Automatic annotation (TrEMBL):
Organism from which the protein derives: Zhongshania marina
Alphabetized InterPro entries for the sequence: AcCoA_carboxyl_beta (IPR034733), ClpP/crotonase-like_dom_sf (IPR029045), COA_CT_C (IPR011763), COA_CT_N (IPR011762), MCCB/AccD1-like (IPR045190)
GO molecular function: methylcrotonoyl-CoA carboxylase activity
Listed GO biological process terms: L-leucine catabolic process
Pfam families with a match to the protein in the record: Carboxyl_trans
GO CC annotations, alphabetized: methylcrotonoyl-CoA carboxylase complex
Domain called CoA carboxyltransferase N-terminal: residue spans: 22-278
Name recorded for this polypeptide: Methylcrotonoyl-CoA carboxylase
Domain (CoA carboxyltransferase C-terminal) ranges: 278-527
Length: 535
């Protein structure tokens, strides 16, 4: 494959301006990430210390194989919700290596409300377990949870994707033969109790670990029975009487050591036979992305320059280079894995949509995973394009993309608006992993367009009533809508809602994708089958 010839001039004023803007963005990203991971009120840290419990990240570090990478997911989940009271949605999820096996890890964070599940905590855990199901991964639960966050029960209890889905997913994983291990470090009450109970293996720490449907106060209130924590759900009772847990441990360190011994017994599954070659670092420095990503989201940039800083050796075999040029399609390798890349270089037109549909079919036929690099304002609108069948051609792209059997991966590199989000494998289209860059934005349309649309609707409405929209009213609509859009389309807001699997430093994109692709290779790739195409 030929090396991409970069046209980036690192000394140009434009590059330098972008660099300055992106360094500021990265500063903000790292500040938020650090706060979500480590900053907690002192009294909550003191409470854990008094109880002799480790912090969730200390447990995680001890569990993982030393020196191996951990692909943390949705670190900034819930960051813009609940007044910031649920940092990282009160839990850690991610993919790591334990005893040489790729595992999905879900850890409760009892520094936040005793590890109680906020609605976003549940969304994050369910998503993590969906990842385990899609990619056939075993799961290790680090349990220390008060169960559902009681004040918000109506947002987390009874609906399809609420708390029950965690247990449903555990049952599905078990049915699939994906192993689950629970290490019980703290009190696991009610919902929190079912996680170890539905696991294949469980270890419980004597003294601090406990599992029960209702704790002693609830039992007293419900039946009048007075019972201690140890009698009701402690390590000795569960490992020698009820059989709810398998192994007692004297300390958290011992529980982790027993857990690692258990994982070491699990058979190593053969991975999907991917098209692979020796990995090669990109020829162009991924950090140059900071000078390529525009300071202003509306400024177009060449996605080929991004591809050059993600793929092995910066080598790329472009498909149909002269046709449908607002969409780049082609083959490359990431961490040695062959991938098909689809990246936006402008609006999606009829030709670019048809080219995408065709390319996606080729990748499915060859069982080549697909990477989508989104920077899309949408599909072209207007009489000429409708007559040419833009709606039909966009539908073709969506039909083939949605019907794909190969694993798909999506990166939000800049803007993602309207149906372009869908065609380019947005969240609704089952990317195995979807990551956002800190500068990126997602919304149904741009804020200014939405403001203009709403102002026009209001004007027409008032005209019907023989009235007019004053300049002040128009300005108010404009500023209200653009302010809302600016806030709600930001990567921090959409990641807070878990519309992605996390925000990443652009320079880490290659490694995040490499790990994601390696993870996806745990599951077989089926033969392609699509719905009916309107040709
Ligand atoms: C999903 C399903 C089907 C059902 C459910 O899960 S219902 C949930 C039932 N859960 C409970 O009854 C647990 C009640 N909590 C406790 O027993 C204890 O808080 C504890 C053992 C989990 C932790 O005790 P610890 O001494 O370590 O800490 P506390 O000072 O008691 O609590 C710290 C902090 O967390 C708040 N908290 C605890 N549990 C919940 C909860 N389930 N929902 C909301 N908030 C909870 C507690 O009020 C305290 O808050 P502040 O720091 O703001 O005082």
């Amino acid at each position: 494959m030929r090396r991409i010839q970069s046209r980036v001039n690192v000394n140009s004023p434009e590059y330098q301006e972008n660099l300055k803007a992106n360094e500021a963005r990265l500063g903000e990203f790292h500040r938020r990430q650090h706060a979500a991971r480590y900053e907690r009120p002192q009294r909550d840290l003191d409470r854990l210390e008094r109880q002799g419990k480790m912090l969730p990240r200390e447990r995680l570090e001890m569990l993982l194989d030393p020196g191996t990478p951990f692909l943390e997911l949705s670190t900034l989940a819930a960051g813009e919700h609940y007044d910031g009271d649920s940092p990282s949605a009160s839990c850690i999820t991610g993919i790591g290596i334990v005893c040489g096996r790729e595992v999905l890890i879900h850890a409760n964070d009892s520094t936040v409300k005793g590890g109680a599940w906020y609605p976003m905590t549940i969304k994050k855990i369910v998503r993590a377990m969906d990842i385990a199901i899609e990619n056939h991964l075993p799961v290790i639960h680090l349990c220390d949870s008060a169960g559902g966050f009681l004040p918000l029960q109506s947002e987390l209890f009874g609906d399809k994707y609420y708390a029950g889905r965690i247990f449903r997913n555990q049952a599905i994983l078990s049915k699939m033969g994906c192993k689950q291990l629970s290490l019980v470090f703290g009190h696991c009450t009610a919902g929190g109790a079912y996680v170890p109970a539905l696991s294949d293996y469980s270890v419980i720490v004597r003294g601090t670990g406990a599992v029960f449907l209702g704790g002693p106060p609830l039992v007293k209130a419900a039946t009048g029975e007075e019972v201690t924590v140890e009698e009701l759900g402690g390590a000795d009772m569960h490992t020698s009487v009820s059989g709810t847990c398998d192994y007692p441990a004297e300390t958290e360190e011992e529980a982790i050591a027993i857990g690692r011994e258990i994982v070491a017994q699990w058979s190593k599954k053969k991975k999907w036979d991917a098209q692979q070659q020796a990995p090669e670092a990109p020829y162009y420095d991924p950090k140059e992305l900071y000078g390529i990503i525009p300071a202003n989201i509306k400024t177009q940039f060449d996605m080929m320059e991004v591809i050059a800083r993600i793929v092995d050796g910066s080598r790329f075999h472009e498909y149909q280079p002269a046709y449908g040029k607002t969409l780049i399609c082609g083959f490359a390798h990431i961490w040695g894995y062959k991938v098909g890349i689809i990246g936006n270089n402008g609006i999606l037109f009829n030709d670019s949509s048809k080219k995408a549909a065709h390319f996606i079919q080729l990748c499915n036929q060859n069982k080549t995973p697909l990477v989508f690099l989104q920077n899309i304002t949408g599909y072209m609108v207007g009489r000429e394009y409708e007559r040419e069948g833009i709606t039909k051609d966009g539908a073709k792209m969506i039909m083939v993309q949605a019907g794909s059997e190969v694993p798909k991966f999506t990166i939000m590199t800049n803007g993602s608006y309207g149906a372009g989000n869908y065609g380019m494998c947005g969240r609704a289209f089952d990317s195995r992993f979807l990551f956002s860059w800190p500068n990126s934005e997602i919304s149904v349309m741009g804020g200014e367009q939405a403001a203009k649309t709403l102002a026009t609707i209001k004007t027409t409405q008032l005209e019907r009533e023989g009235k007019t929209l004053s300049e002040e009213e128009r300005a108010k609509i404009y500023s209200d809508v653009t302010d809302d859009y600016e806030h709600q389309s930001s990567a921090y807001y959409t990641s807070s809602l878990i519309w992605d699997d996390g925000i990443i430093d652009p320079a880490d994109t290659r490694n995040a994708l490499g790990m994601a692709i390696a993870t996806a290779m745990n599951a077989p790739i089926e033969d392609p089958r699509y719905g009916v195409l309107r040709v």
